[in-house]
Amino acid sequence: MLKVGIVGAGHFGRFHALKARGCAREALIALFDPDPARARLVAQETGCSVAESLDA
What we know:
This protein is an alpha/beta fold. The protein has one domain. It has 2 helices and 3 strands. It has helices at 11-22, 36-46; strands at 2-7, 26-32, 49-50. It has a 3-stranded parallel beta sheet with strand order 1-2-3, covered by helices on one side. α1 links the parallel β1 (2-7) and β2 (26-32). The longest helix is centred in the N-terminal third of the chain and has 12 residues, at 11-22. The termini are far apart.
């Protein structure tokens, strides 16, 4: 199982998050975006956590 983290929750970040969520060999762990509201929105849609920073 490949653990995946995504930086950016814009159009392409959301696209990649949705694809990672749907892949049986990937586990979408968290995503980060400088806009916390956007990060929360995509995280809710994909069922992953929001990273509070890039280092997290």
